[in-house]
Amino acid sequence: MTRQDAQGFDLADPLARFGDAFDLPKGVIYLDGNSLGPAPLKVHERLEKVSRHEWGEGLVRSWNSARWIEAPGRVGDKIAQLIGAKAGEVVVADSTSVNLFKLAAGALSLRPGRKTLLSETGSFPTNLYVLQGLTHLLGDRAQLKALAPAEVVAAIDEDTAVVVLTHVHFKSAQRWDMAAITAAAHAKGALVIWDLCHTAGAVAVDLNDIGADLAVGCGYKYLNGGPGAPAFLFVAERHQALIQSPLWGWMGHATPFAFEDNYRGASGIRGQITGTPPILGLAALEAGVDLQLEADPARVEAKGLALADLFIAEIESRGADPALKLASPREAGQRGLHVSFSHPEAYAVVQAMIARGIIGDFRAPDIARFGFSPLFLSYAAVWDAAHAMADILAARAWDRPEFHARAAVT
Amino acid sequence: MTRQDAQGFDLADPLARFGDAFDLPKGVIYLDGNSLGPAPLKVHERLEKVSRHEWGEGLVRSWNSARWIEAPGRVGDKIAQLIGAKAGEVVVADSTSVNLFKLAAGALSLRPGRKTLLSETGSFPTNLYVLQGLTHLLGDRAQLKALAPAEVVAAIDEDTAVVVLTHVHFKSAQRWDMAAITAAAHAKGALVIWDLCHTAGAVAVDLNDIGADLAVGCGYKYLNGGPGAPAFLFVAERHQALIQSPLWGWMGHATPFAFEDNYRGASGIRGQITGTPPILGLAALEAGVDLQLEADPARVEAKGLALADLFIAEIESRGADPALKLASPREAGQRGLHVSFSHPEAYAVVQAMIARGIIGDFRAPDIARFGFSPLFLSYAAVWDAAHAMADILAARAWDRPEFHARAAVT
Questions:
Q1: Chain B nearest-CA residue for A131
Q2: Catalytic annotation, pick one of B32, B77, B94, B195
Q3: What pLDDT shows up at residue A410?
Q4: The CATH classification of domain A45-293, taken from the options 3.40.190.10, 3.20.20.220, 3.40.50.10420, 3.40.640.10
Q5: Where are the domains of chain A?
Q6: What is the pLDDT of residues B165-202, one digit of tens each?
Q7: What H or E segment, with its residue span, contains residue B303?
């Protein structure tokens, strides 16, 4: 493919207009939106409005007048539209880790008599940490089985309360088949919690269509909600009457402002909230989600996969360094929207690209990871990034002694 | 006292200069900084810098270049200076409720063999909710005793793992004697968790001086950290090696970026962090804390108590409505920095004051609550507020039928 071909794709791209909606520095090709999404231009004015007008002028009155109190549910309802959930099934609260703790304990409450939490090794580790912490806390009332991904499905059994899986792997981008796994778990009476951190805003999913039970996800990747944005959680409507969060707090109470001494959880998704909602984070997240809602999720996914395919093809067409290996599924349908390569000098490769304004990610020990966020990346930019990386691989700066000498002092 | 006397106090007030450091609407007397502190003027530019420069231009690089990753500990160290803690004993994370869950479970881990969590009824209820949720989760491995405040101390016994008390009561402002309670608990081998929501930035405390074990507190009251600001928690250095948070997440791992499958908690206070830090909330909180650090805590407390005394005295000197009763301790040393009155028409009184630009708080069923944040309130403003309230009480608008007719339609 020539650069002109890539430009031709851009001219025909119905998502191209979103490129102007983000605040990205000139000269930067940002292939790390899967770690921290860039700032939507509108988020700056939104934050200024919250800070100066709602907080500064409105003061405490803004809990009602600026509808702060509704923000967790309102933004949750918007995220629901992106992942095939209904209004009232998603709420924004806490971090992904804390939300997983709530839902994993909640899943045990939905499956009394079952003790096993089943999950995968080698995925983004906070999920295993949360489950390890929960089982440590619960002692002999719960146990964690963490198996290699290939062994997970066969291990679902009559003692499995819940299977916890990350839909799109943080390094390889390998996707689980959500429908098939959910069906397999349900066949054994187990529930599934899907971690949608690399899914929401990227890969088109329809939680209700596949009969999903529970899900968590973060706000700061493809939802472009800002650094450490609050996270979301999903509880299918059919589970809401029975699930119990272990984190009982005043904002999850049926009548928070009655200041009763005894907890009575709110019905519906609000029962999953604990403390006072983080309004600044919610405001930024809402700006990111609002932008995402303007794009068709199927188109978003298709473009992201096409960008990734282009990147792989251009790198490989340049006669790749034999040490460079694709560490993601070659078939687009098996992937999320990022691509990883392994290379013994992956760290040096990523640093050299950053020096040229192309921001990707190094993941120890030898992975160079690149995310293809469809809203702000053009085909031409991805073409440029691929050829820059091919140039860097061809130049092999790391073979020259002065490279390591320089690296040692900087 | 005349208004001129009050103005004389302002002229002599070493904290008066802080009045210009806050963004408060003209004509408003804000007596609700104990619910949501107002915006420091500098917070607006700080948020704009984070949004446009650090997030917009710096993108993912700002985790290091803008020191985002250090923010929970850095802001924690600053809060430590306000509450008599050492660097490394305080961290900013999550909400007050979630932090209490972590420390209450952590206290059980520090006192194996003891099952009782002891707390008070009638205080801000999220604390009881959190403890109820934790004991519900742990089944017969823990129990909650929630007693009337007067019965708490006598109930500390050999089975008490931890006593959970709110230092300054959210309605009455009644203070616990932190030193005496802590000593009484230690005498029985129990720990104490202090809730400092209405204390930090208001009442001068010295956690290490009194041998405090554990504490939590919120960022959005007297620390002026913004709506839903992240909360803080304190773990005395001597407990840090053994305490275990039940919420294991990647940011509390000894080496988060090694992506190991097994949790190894970070040593020190960082082991109390769970998910990715909320950078926008932390930035706003840091601006509020930075301002607070410029004031001497003892002076802050003394002025707040003097303002409250002035308010009580002026209201009462006007020949108070006999239905108006002080619902806070009369003696300043027994109080935090807010004052509550009970009145059968408290709701109407608070609404009438708000209509005159004096923002206080109604707390069901019959409490009018007024906070006296020392950094931005002048003696003259408090004098004005007291006389406005006395006027409203004298006018007795609620005795006229048209008042209720109007209230019914608005």
A1: B248
A2: B195
A3: 44
A4: 3.40.640.10
A5: 3-30+296-409, 45-293
A6: 999 999 999 999 999 999 999 999 999 999 999 999 99
A7: helix B297-317
Task: Say yes or no to pLDDT of A220 above 80.
Answer: yes
Q: Which residues contact A268 (CB under 8 A, 6 or more apart)?
A: A88, A240
Residue B104, by phi and psi: left (phi above 0), alpha (psi -120 to 50) or beta? alpha
Q: Which two tokens stand for residue B148?
A: 């009337």
pLDDT digits (tens, 9 = 90+) for A349-364: 999 999 999 999 999 8
| Residue A408: per-residue pLDDT | 55
User: Measured between alpha carbons, how far is A303 from A12 in angstroms, rounded to an integer?
Assistant: 11
Question: For A80-121, how does the pLDDT look when each residue is reduced to its tens digit (9 = 90+)?
Answer: 999 999 999 999 999 999 999 999 999 999 999 999 999 999
- Indicate the pLDDT class of residue A210, thresholds 50, 70 and 90: very high
Torsion of CA A210, A215, A220, A226, to 10 degrees: 120
**Site from A123, A147, A247 to mutate, B interface, most B CB atoms within 10 angstroms:** A247
DSSP per position, B322-336: TT-EE-S-SSGGGB-
Question: DSSP character for B158?
Answer: T
From B356, B79, B105, select the one nearest B233 (Cα to Cα): B79
Instruction: Give the number of residues written for chain A.
Output: 410
Residue whose structure tokens are 């290490």: B208
Q: How far is CA B385 from CA A219, A401, B319, B372, B375, in A?
A: 43, 75, 16, 11, 17
Q: Write the CATH number of the domain with boundaries B3-30+296-409.
A: 3.90.1150.10
A61/chain B closest Cα distance in angstroms: 9
- Please tell me chain B's helix, strand, coil percentages from 3-state DSSP, rounded to the nearest 5: 45, 15, 40
Question: With contact defined as beta carbons under 8 Å apart, do A114 and A252 qualify?
Answer: no
The active-site residue, picked from B124, B299, B318, B403, is: B124
Burial A113-134 (b: 16+ CB within 10 A, else e): ebbbbbbbeebbbbbbbbbbbb
pLDDT of residue B410: 43
Catalytic-residue membership of B86: no
Residue type, B14: P
Which residue matches tokens 């909602």? A277
A165 forms beta bridges with A194
Q: Which of residues 294-333 of B touch A (CB under 8 A)?
A: none
B263 touches A at CB < 8 Å: yes
Which chain B residue shows the shortest CA-CA distance from A263?
B129
Residue A77 confidence (pLDDT) above 70: yes
Q: What is the bridge-based pairing of β-strands A143-147 and B90-92?
A: unpaired
In this prediction the ipTM stands at: 0.96
Range list of H helices, B88-218? 96-110, 126-138, 149-155, 178-187
What is the rounded distance in angstroms from the CA atom of residue A3 to the CA atom of residue A54? 47
Is A53 in CB contact (< 8 Å) with chain B? Answer: no
Question: Could B130 and A36 be called an inter-chain contact, meaning their C-beta atoms sit closer than 8 Å?
Answer: no
